């Protein structure tokens, strides 16, 4: 076997077994979908880009600048004037840049059911967490709070592997799952330390099953909620019954207002299958134990629309209508104004409340077991 062939042989083995002997989990994170082209570059000058096709063929490139991947006919893509069959994977030892974000591990590209491209990052869960924590929590918070976030994010990831199975990956990279934007060039040392020092630690229930560690920014200083009061069609876990929490009352989200024009809300409701031309009034018709709006009634010119208030949050936008702890709704000219407090669905762990508890000297284990009663921390690997 020639030296070049030997190199490619061992390169193929290394590429295909990158995670085979990992002591943790491999996750597939959906980065982009329904696109026809994208650009990539390498994180280190002079690095080698490895392309591995589904047939096992390995090609190595040394691109000097950013390169474009463009979808062509017959399930092929064009890269540097050459065509490659889908699916295939990219790999570079120091990571690959997409939209100027660095992604470790492998990048998989395949044709989805819509006939467009899906891009997936395949990597070790611990490296994945390096890219989750900076976008799900303030990295300037106490070390113990960063450990809280590392443990619950790890647990959430493993418990929800395959959530996007039909799309070809485990989790998406948005707020629907957990926000993930790759790893910055200079990883926050506090984040890396929190992840490394909690390696393999997860939250389990009294039957030793992985807990669903839902979390949100701030409950609004009243307490977390019973999961069934917020979401329909989910299991009524004992540890998601809600606990008292006034620890986040000084968070910057304790009070907010959301202004949406009537015309815009009518359009949003139409886009979600509701028939109306004008909104006459909006009324909260039921509340949770902590006075969050549970169900709302939208009075329109074509009859009443009744829905869970969490659905209204989804329609208006989670970053606009920040929570269902709506205290007042006013109509002012063509605008509808919602006044409320807190940020998020209110289920599981309240991050601002947990942060306050760590400041008071509580350990990450004590904080987690407070917000998820009847659970405990377990070393999974």
Calculate the terminal CA-CA distance, rounded to whole Å. 40 Å
**What general form does the structure show?**
globular
How many helical elements? 10
The fraction of residues in strands falls at 25-35%
- What is the subunit organization of this protein? single chain
Describe the model.
With 381 residues, this protein is of the alpha+beta class. The protein has three domains: 18-172, no CATH class; 200-250 and 345-379, no CATH class; 256-340, no CATH class. 23% of the residues lie in helices and 31% in strands. The strands form six sheets. Strands 4-3-8-11-12-1-13 form a seven-stranded mixed sheet. A six-stranded antiparallel sheet has the order 7-6-5-2-9-10, with no helix packed on it. A three-stranded antiparallel sheet has the order 16-21-20. Helix 4 packs across helix 5 (189-197) and helix 4 crosses helix 10 (364-371). The longest helix is centred in the middle third of the chain and has 17 residues, at 143-159. The two termini are 40 Å apart. Residues 1-22 have low confidence and may be disordered.
Write the layout of secondary structure elements.
Elements lengths: L2 H14 L9 E10 L1 E6 L6 E5 L4 E4 L5 E5 L4 E4 L2 E4 L2 E4 L4 E3 L2 E3 L2 E6 L5 E8 H6 L2 H4 L6 H17 L11 E2 L16 H9 L3 E4 L10 E2 L10 H4 L25 E6 H10 L7 E9 L5 E8 L2 E6 H8 L9 E7 L2 E6 L8 E2 H9 L4 H8 L4 E4 L2
Parallel strand pairs: 1-13, 15-22
Antiparallel strand pairs: 1-12, 2-5, 2-9, 3-4, 3-8, 5-6, 6-7, 8-11, 9-10, 11-12, 14-23, 16-21, 17-18, 18-19, 20-21
Helix pairs in contact: 4-5, 4-9, 4-10
